[in-house]
Amino acid sequence: MTQHVEKTLKDKVAVITGGSRGIGRAVAEALIARGASVVIGDILEAEGKATAEEFNTLAGSKIAVFIRTDVTSYKDNIALFQCAEKEFGGVDIAFLNAGIAGQESDIALGPPDDKIDERAMDVNGISVIKGTKIAILHMAKRGGGVIVNTASMLGVDTMPSTNAYSASKHAVVGWTRSFTLLPQVCNVRVNAVCPHYVDTDMIAVHESMIARGGPMVELIPKIHKATISNVVKGVLTLIEDQQRNAQTLLVLPDDVLQIAEPAIPDIVKIGAKPDFEEAYKKYERDYVTFSKKRLEYSLQEYEKIHGKFS
Ligand SMILES: NC(=O)c1ccc[n+]([C@@H]2O[C@H](COP(=O)([O-])OP(=O)(O)OC[C@H]3O[C@@H](n4cnc5c(N)ncnc54)[C@H](O)[C@@H]3O)[C@@H](O)[C@H]2O)c1
């Protein structure tokens, strides 16, 4: 018997990167079950098209669209969000989830190589920055929204052989934590999900790892993993709980969801002069005023180049 799910996201529109398979696909399914429409952007074209078709067939109406998207390019990110405007009238939710973890994860002691060494940071880190910026523009124009970035437990912890992957996911965590004031600027929230290891194609022991005989190959089967359904639960919590912003939610094995707190909270305030608190409050007020103007300008420029929002 299929479980009844409340349509808590009825008429909402979600953009999902890396949604052709794995965690992205599972989140797309959960959002659709709650009444949302989804636009999936991924480089895996055949899987992405099949996924969208399957969702539409099951729903009996057009609630999913696939568009080939390489998240490393602004051009593709913009086309992805414009597609959501065109197909479903705007964007309320963005799940910026595309990522890689192949040989580019462990580069520290390999030969210097511009292409390989920049790859993890580019796909896992810079792409989230690009996706967030485009999402904010679309959501601000619509009056609000929520972005969830996929980091990793390796965004708050690390292992010797995940050096570049960890660096890229720490970047996602730092970027996400910086958005404490965004709701005051434009009513958009930004959070990150940090899954423990999950059984997806990503870690289904990469051929490249086996070929290189990397040390992770034997370790991965022994790691206690989180379930994909619990990752979905974490993402839904970050989307639906209006109080959550600039948060990083760890999804651990045994169904544990836990906030990943910074090691030293509010480090900028440590050892400050007595009038620092007042100065900090003023800085926050000034930031909101400054950012509203900056966003207004960016929206005008964006509309000049890409046309009016729907
Ligand atoms: N599986 C895990 O153990 C685990 C743990 C923590 C975090 N994560 C993160 O979860 C996210 C989803 O991974 P997954 O486990 O579902 O693996 P996956 O490989 O099944 O999914 C990743 C998706 O991202 C897509 N992608 C890769 N590069 C892209 C690009 N340049 N442009 C657009 N799409 C691109 C892939 O085609 C794929 O569909 C990733 O960001 C990953 O780093 C995974």
Q: What structural keywords apply?
A:
single chain, 310 residues, alpha/beta, Rossmann fold, eight-stranded mixed beta sheet, 8 strands, 14% strand, binds nicotinamide-adenine-dinucleotide, NAD(P)-bd_dom_sf, oxidoreductase activity, acting on the CH-OH group of donors, NAD or NADP as acceptor, oxidoreductase
What does this structure look like?
One of its GO terms (cellular component) is cytoplasm. GO terms for molecular function: oxidoreductase activity, acting on the CH-OH group of donors, NAD or NADP as acceptor. Pfam families: adh_short. This protein has 310 residues and is an alpha/beta fold. The protein has a single domain, classed as Rossmann fold. It is built from ten helices and eight strands. Strands 3-2-1-4-5-6-7-8 form an eight-stranded mixed beta sheet, with helices on both faces. Helix 3 packs parallel to helix 4 (114-142) and helix 4 (114-142) runs parallel beside helix 5 (163-177). Bound molecules: nicotinamide-adenine-dinucleotide (NAD).
